[in-house]
C-alpha cells in the first residue's frame, strides 16, 4: 500500500525536475553572475525598489529571490517562477513576506500595482514575450508601473562577445530559446507603454527602467 502513493509522488517529482530547465544553473547562477558583474545585476534589480512599494506586486522570473530580501517583509503579491529549484530557494529567502509563490508561467486574475521583470525576458522566445506582455497589460492597474532590469544591445565589441557567450551558454545549459537579445523598448511601445525613468550601467549595456501605460497612444 505504501509503494503506490510514493511512486506517484516520485513521478510528480521526476516530471517537475524534467520540466525545470534552469535546475542545473540554480546553484551557481548567483556566484557566476557576481564573479562576472560584481553587484551590478543585483543593483539593477533593486534600483527602483524599496520596502515602501505600496499595493500588489507581481514578480516574474525572480530566481532565488535574494535581491528582494531587504524589502519583501512589507510586500504582498505574487511570485512566479518557471524553475521549481529557483522557486524553492525564493520561498526560503522570502519567507517573511506576504507574497504567494507560484510555479509555472504567469496566469492570474489579480490586478497589480507593480510588475517586476528581472532578467527574464532575455530567456524567452518572441512569441512567449508577446503572450506574457498581453497578460501583464490586462492585469496591470491603470496607474501601475512595470520595472524591467535587463541586458541591452550594445556596440561595444567586448560586451557583444560576452552577450553572445552568455546567450549560447544558457542555450546549452538551460535550453533557452533565443539567439539574440529582445528589442525590449519596441515590445513595450507596441504594447502601449512609455518609459518614465531609467538607470544605466556600463554605457547602457545593463539597464533598469520604469514603464507605465501611455495615456496618449492606442495599443495592442
Ligand atoms: C536569468 S534568470 C534571472 C533570475 C533573477 N531574476 C536574477 O536576476 O537573478 C531567469 C529566471 O527566469 C525564470 N523564467 C524564465 N521564463 C519564465 C517565465 N515565463 N515565467 C516565470 N519565470 C521564468 C527562470 O526559471 C530563471 O529563474
From TrEMBL:
Lineage top rank: taxon: Bacteria
Any one of the GO BP annotations: methylation
InterPro entries found in the cross-reference section: SAM-dependent_MTases_sf
Listed name of the protein: Class I SAM-dependent methyltransferase
SUPFAM superfamilies: S-adenosyl-L-methionine-dependent methyltransferases
Keywords per UniProt: Methyltransferase, Transferase
Key word Transferase present: yes
GO molecular function per UniProt: methyltransferase activity
Amino acid at each position: 500500500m505504501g509503494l503506490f502513493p510514493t511512486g506517484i509522488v516520485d513521478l510528480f517529482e521526476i516530471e517537475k525536475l524534467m520540466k525545470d530547465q534552469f535546475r542545473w544553473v540554480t546553484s551557481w547562477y548567483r556566484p557566476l553572475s557576481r564573479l562576472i558583474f560584481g553587484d551590478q545585476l543585483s543593483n539593477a534589480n533593486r534600483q527602483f525598489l524599496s520596502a515602501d512599494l505600496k499595493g500588489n506586486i507581481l514578480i516574474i522570473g525572480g530566481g532565488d529571490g535574494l535581491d528582494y530580501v531587504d524589502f519583501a517583509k512589507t510586500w504582498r503579491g505574487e511570485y512566479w517562477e518557471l524553475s521549481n529549484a529557483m522557486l524553492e530557494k525564493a520561498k526560503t529567502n522570502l519567507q517573511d513576506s506576504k507574497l504567494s509563490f507560484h510555479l509555472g508561467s504567469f496566469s492570474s486574475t489579480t490586478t497589480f500595482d507593480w510588475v517586476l521583470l528581472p532578467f527574464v525576458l532575455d530567456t524567452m522566445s518572441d512569441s512567449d514575450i508577446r503572450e506574457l506582455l498581453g497578460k501583464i497589460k490586462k492585469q496591470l492597474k491603470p496607474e501601475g508601473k512595470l520595472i524591467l532590469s535587463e541586458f541591452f544591445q550594445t556596440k561595444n565589441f567586448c560586451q557583444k562577445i560576452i552577450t553572445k557567450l552568455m546567450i549560447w551558454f544558457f542555450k546549452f545549459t538551460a535550453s533557452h530559446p533565443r539567439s539574440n537579445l529582445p528589442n525590449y523598448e519596441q515590445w513595450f511601445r507596441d504594447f502601449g507603454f512609455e518609459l518614465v525613468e531609467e538607470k544605466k550601467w556600463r554605457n547602457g549595456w545593463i539597464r533598469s527602467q520604469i514603464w507605465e501605460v501611455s495615456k496618449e497612444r492606442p495599443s495592442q
